Amino acid sequence: MRIEFTLNGEARAVEVAGTTPLLWVLRESLELSGTKFGCGRALCGACTVHVDGTAVRACSYPVRYVAGKQVRTIEGLERDAVGRAVVGAWIDLDVVQCGWCQPGQCMAAAALLSADASPDDATIDGAMSGNLCRCGTYPRIRAAIHRAAATLRGEDGR
Amino acid sequence: MSAPSTRRDFLAGSLLSGGGLVLGLAFGDRARAASFFPGAAVDFVPHAFLRVAPDGTITFLAKHDEMGQGIHTGLAMTVCEELEVDVDAIRVVPAPADPAFAHSTYGIQVTGGSTSTWTSFDQVRGAGATARAMLVAAAAERWGVDVAACEARDGAVHRTDGSGSATYGELAEAAARQPVPADVPLKDRAQFTRIGKPTPRIDSASKVRGTAVFSLDQRVSGMLTAMVARSPYFGGALKSVDDAAAKAVPGVKAVVRVPSGVAVVADGFWAAFAGREALVTEWEPGEGTRMDTERLRAEFVEKSRSPGLPARSDGDPEGALARAGRTLEAVYEVPYQAHAPMEPLSCMVTLRDDGGAEVVTGSQMLGGDHPAVAGRLGVDPSKVTFRNSYLGGGFGRRANPGSDFTLEAVEVALAARSLGAPIKTVWTREDDLRGGWYRPMFVDAMAAGLDGGEVVAWRHRVVGQSIIEGTPFAPLLIQNGIDATSVEGAADMPYAIPNLGVELHTVALPVPVQWWRSVGHSNTAFAKESFLDECAEALGRDPCELRRALLADHPRLLRVLNLAAEKAGWDTPPPAGVGRGVAVHESFKGFAAHVVEASIEDGRPRVRRIVCAIDCGPVVNPDQVESQLQGAAIFALSATLGSQITFRDGRVVESNFHDFQVVRMHEAPVVEVHIVDSTDEMGGIGEVGVPGIAPAVCSALRAAGGPRVRRLPVGNQLA
Q1: What's the angle, vertex CA B501, arms to CA B500 and CA B503, rounded to 5?
Q2: How many A×B Cβ pairs under 8 Å?
Q3: Poorest-confidence range of A37-46, B455-464, B466-475?
Q4: End-to-end CA distance of chain B
């Protein structure tokens, strides 16, 4: 079926089976491989993208449900201030190790910060516990979220 | 799986050849070196590692694979220190498969054993220094002055009298005509301006923005995607397959038989997945029925009651145990453990008309995979090109002694050759967790004799599979029937106990096993450090004090122990309800101590704080040492608290992250890392932070009022 949606601010149309997970449409049909595959069952968060501003797991999100909606991926994250703050904090603090989970982590963090400008640790736990990292970068992810929040509040964050 | 004999011979020969050959290959043949840099005809390629182009672009080929440990940044800092150029002014590219990039000690191209930094340090500095010397010589020739009147700095050569300078790019062509100097002095440590300073990772921005290319992200025009249905039983075989429904799935191009099962080749991941789901297969369990965790536990424990092959015997352990005023015995157990890197495995193969192939993957051991693939294709390795990617986690899984995922991808490509397309074979998470090559399950039977307030006898019996037997590494690592990796951390344990025996029972089982971050230490340190705490408790001695007394002759271990204890406030009472546990362990030439604070809440473990001290000798990038130690602690915590691979009726029970439970954000404690300012010998980092976590956590839970946990993972044993 033909599915039209907005991807990172641009109108896109794809011709695929409507049950295909959004992840594979992004990675293969649209060649945007910043969104990662980790589990295929919405258990690890590596494929996190935003649909109408909400963080969803693209590996388990049939593409037909994005028809007419706004989809944002890591490739479009820096289009707004929250996304720029998140990416900037991640780079400043050298959060990454292997890096495979990090685009998904950033997407989850950006969704969190869009909803809560000053999340405390418990709020971060709640928002981020669906995003796995085998390298164990959690302490730096937590620090980067606090840093991004401070940046968005106009503080230096250090 | 049996590797072709040509590959075994190659590996065995390489492993024994040592480092001289390596330096020779990397430095000796400039024409060959130039072949690694396409289009390098007029560029300056002093050896296999570096190219300086006339436009100033400097390309550095990284011989070690970047799987998160920050080695590309560390190697870049190391070469830049001597080349006199900033890290962000060079481009770092993964080296292709070639003996020129062999590991400086192991002799084949591999990244593992926490060895990348210390084994390549002098070689990579030499690479930078050699290039710098040739650039300086070219400048001196241009200006008609002595090299002593020239100084390399910030990517240019400057006349010391300030009368002129030339950039490396401007000097590249002339430098290429200079002879390669035989011996170039390296800087003294005191002269370092880059090594030892916290330095940002070169791959942060691309990984955060999703532009870094991993194996699964690799694509070429016309590429197809394959998924393999493998036997659910290790040692099992395909009985029958009905592929009619699979072939009818839109996008499926072919269903082919391969040695490991049935491959569905399709125009994308989802079609391959749906096609594989539609296969109807029947499997003969074969030997696989032996795999049942509860039964194996009983068998291993039974075995541990009898003496094994001696791996170490000091004094008279049996006599001393018999004579001791008091004896303690305990059985420790660890399960099979999967690596579960976040990026599932994949490998793309393009078969060439000349019988060779182009292979693109994410591997920790191109030096094994390259000859293995050439052997399978029956061609000279020169007809097989291998390109590596960023590795989305490795933890040992991608250094497969049987080249399992690369060879399988070649089998798929061969079986589907008529499709005439590049084929990327991909694994799902279920394939990964159920695909074997685990850290083996072990039982460790411990016994100690106590007398006069001291530990006078110690016996450590290890029961488990060998990860080395049947691999090309066997001649080196198995001596007198003892797989050194099965008893590492036990046979070399440092505590001064006069009567000390270590024994090994090696068990043969059909499940394939391999190294998992920290290898044998991931088992032995748990038993050794936990049981020493049991001794301390029985003797009424403080766990840190007892360790100090037994480590008098081990200054580096003592130093990390004291540092961790001090930083954790060991001598002050912990918060109410919180217990502290300690572990100190040497592995991979690195020395680590951990103090863990944990509590028990509603029958569940809660790890609140981990304080770690490491001595790995001189440090290249302190920020990445910290990052590795933080990550190692959390990686180890997963295996301590929740993750395991178990078998029931011959099949793996776990399948994905709902039942293979790894630590998530809300369970991740604070991890404080303290690096010893050390001028001792350089050692390992990445694995060194793993072994101490399990025993320190379990001792902390004991100190918090819980039972002594002797079987990993802790799971619900506290409920």
Answers
A1: 160
A2: 180
A3: B466-475
A4: 42
Nearest CA distance, B202 vs chain A (angstrom): 9
Residue B530 CA to residue B592 CA, distance in Å, equals 16
Query: Does the CA dihedral B187-B188-B193-B194 come out positive or negative?
Result: positive
Q: What are the tokens at B439?
A: 């850290």
Is the pLDDT score of B280 beyond 60? yes
Rounded to 5 degrees, φ, ψ at B575 are -55, 155
- Which residue in B594, B612, B665, B685 has the most chain A C-beta atoms within 10 A of its own C-beta, making it the best mutation to test that interface? B665
Query: What pLDDT, on a 0 to 100 scale, did the predictor assign at position B427?
Result: 98
CB–CB contact B208 A98 (8 Å) = no
Whether the predicted pLDDT of A156 surpasses 70: no
Q: Which domain CATH number covers B573?
A: 3.30.365.10
State pLDDT tens for residues A57-74.
999 999 999 999 999 999
CB atoms < 10 A from the CB of B420, how many? 9
Co-location of B459 and B399 in the same domain: no
Using CA atoms of B209, B213, B217, B223 in order, give the dihedral in degrees to the nearest 10.
Answer: 140
Identity of the residue numbered B441: M
Which chain A residue's Cα is nearest to B623? A94
SS (H, E, C) B629-690: HHHHHHHHHHHHHCCCECEECCEECCCCCCCCCCCCHHHCCEEEEEECCCCCCCCCCCCCCC
Please judge whether B201 and A101 are an interchain contact, meaning their C-beta atoms are less than 8 angstroms apart. no
pLDDT digits (tens, 9 = 90+) for B43-83: 788 888 999 999 999 999 999 999 999 999 999 999 999 99
> How far does B509 lie from chain A, in Å, by closest CA?
28
| B411 CA to centre of own chain | 26
Helix (H), strand (E), coil (C) string for B124-144: HHHHHHHHHHHHHHHHHHHHC
B264, B275 Cβ separation under 8 angstroms: yes
Domain ranges of chain A: 2-76, 77-152
Strands B499-506 and B156-159: unpaired
pLDDT of residue B23: 36
Give the integer Cα–Cα distance in Å for B140 and B142.
5
| Cβ–Cβ below 8 Å for B209 and A101 | no
Residue A49 pLDDT: 98
* Distance (Å, whole) CA A41 – CA A24: 13
* Chain B, nearest residue to A101 by Cα: B342
What ipTM was predicted for this assembly?
Answer: 0.98
Q: Do B665 and A44 touch (CB under 8 A)?
A: no
Nearest CA-CA distance, residue B666 and chain A, Å = 5
Chain B residues within an 8 Å CB radius of A20: 270
Q: Among 3.30.70.20, 3.10.20.30, 1.10.287.130, 1.20.58.60, what is the CATH number of A2-76?
A: 3.10.20.30
In this structure, which topology does domain A77-152 adopt according to CATH? DNA polymerase; domain 1 (1.10.150)
- With an 8 Å Cβ cutoff, are A41 and B270 in contact? no
Count each helix (H run) and each strand (E run) in chain A, helices first.
Answer: 5, 5
pLDDT at B692: 98
Minimal CA–CA distance to B4: which of B511, B351, B374, B366? Answer: B374
pLDDT at residue B4 greater than cutoff 80: no
Which residue in this structure is represented by tokens 């945007």? Answer: A32
Q: Which domain holds residue B70?
A: 5-209
Q: What is the pLDDT of residues B76-119, one digit of tens each?
A: 999 999 999 999 999 999 999 999 999 999 999 999 999 999 99
The percent of residues above 90 in pLDDT, for chain B, comes to 92
Q: Per-residue confidence at B7, pLDDT binned at 50, 70, 90?
A: very low
pTM more than 0.90: yes
Residue B12 has pLDDT above 60, yes or no: no
Report the alpha-carbon distance of residue B54 to residue B59 in Å, rounded. 12
Q: B358 is written with which tokens?
A: 């182009």
- Indicate yes or no: CB of A24 within 8 angstroms of CB of B250: no
